[in-house]
Amino acid sequence: MKIFNTMTRTKEEFVPINESKVGIYVCGPTVYDYIHIGNARPMIVFDTLRRYLLYKGYDVNYVSNFTDVDDKIIKRALEEGVTSSEISERYIAEAKKDMQDLNVMEATTHPKATEEIPDMIAMVETLIEKGHAYEVNGTVYFRTRSFPGYGKLSKKNIDDLEAGHREIKVAGEEEKEDFLDFVLWKPKKEGEPSWPSPWGEGRPGWHLECSVMSKKYIGDIIDIHAGGEDLIFPHHENEIAQSEAANDVEFARYWMHNAFLKIDGEKMSKSLGNFFTIRDIGEKYPLQVIRFFMLSAHYRSPLNFSDTLVESAKASLERILNAMSRLEEALNTATDREATEEENALLAQFRDYVVKYEAAMEDDLNTADAISVIFEMVKLANSSISSENAKSVIQEVYDTITKLCDILGIITKVETEILDSDIEALIEERQAARKARNFARADEIRDTLAAQGILLEDTREGVKWKRA
Ligand code: AMP
Ligand code: ZN
Predict the structure, then answer these.
(1) 264 with 233: CB under 8 angstroms?
(2) pTM of the model
(3) Ligand 1 within 6 A of 38 CB?
(4) 387 CA to middle of ligand 1, Å?
(5) What integer is the mean pLDDT of 119-133?
(6) Atom from ligand 1 closest to the CA of residue 31
(7) How many CB atoms lie within 10 A of CB 298?
(8) Which pLDDT score, from 0 to 100, does residue 271 have?
């Protein structure tokens, strides 16, 4: 598979450190509010990368953090008169609900910054010992110029950065040795969450958590580090500086960054009022439509969010889902027989589409092209598959489209769960049918329920049922 590596600005063949295992670290959201549709883009894109790597047979260790100590969380807590952890726990739970509705697989580990403080302190101590960090009045700074590779990801020249920094002086930071130095640990302010440290009560800087959590849950070297493109500088640049200075090995082999999601062509922001949470959007559209919409563009292209575009994604997705229901119906009435030569030739066409689909995904996760291939398959299925075909042929087409959609996290079979009240009504009807010696109807009801995974047991106390 080829991956566009932000570090080299080229598409490179992906070779994991271990032959069969891939470690992926994705910077997660700061949890001070519901997640917005912009935050959902990296979640969906990199979940799809994970699903594709799983399809290829890799064992994927997927780590994505929740930033649960931050100025925005503290501000929100003060506004509501509750603790910071109440805010962060509330929005972690809400983010997890949204992710589930977007069919984003649960991360192998979802670390929280506040639960990793001892390891963060240990990394700061290592950096101080090695001369890469220093403490002034309870604040620990990273000595940026001590790390020779600074700027290598964002392609920023350290002297240009220095010149830019001189013009924007930040109050309270005169104590720094150099304007380029950034905070690893900051001292406690009244009313803020804090932890004891060798430099006094305080809390970690934002960049530190990702260096520490990726090391702990993946290792010193990560295969793929990902996030939105706004994180390239300074967040990822600072992560590289911290990790490589502390561990003396290359931090991440491949850097992947998704482009931004815009609204009606404009940057999405709270102040412009063009800001939607996943929860808002979920009221208007099934979230599967949003997932499909996001994947219909390449992850490195900016994507515009508008009602018209989402409506069109909805219609496209329905075309796939309708084709799948047709195939399912055909399967129910088709006969079990050998496939004809003509049918085998048709299956060969479908197998060629799988090769095309894989080629698109292998080319830097080109989900847009992969979706086009699914449409070609759907078109072919609509025009050439019916209940006249051999059951095995329909089944293969059905399973293939299901599998390719599943890699994109698109569920093609919408299960409608039978309610307890419906089950009980059917059981009553079955009892009445038996009484009337209408055994055909009684058996039919038993089969209908069995098809939905409901098992009946006739006991002396009456009919009992359970879900299989
Ligand atoms: P944040 O909570 O702002 O740190 O963002 C969490 C993740 O969402 C990061 O990977 C960001 O790059 C990403 N992100 C934030 N806004 C957008 C957007 N409008 N489009 C795409 N990605 C975004
Ligand atoms: Zn990060």
Answers:
(1) no
(2) 0.89
(3) yes
(4) 47
(5) 98
(6) 2
(7) 19
(8) 72
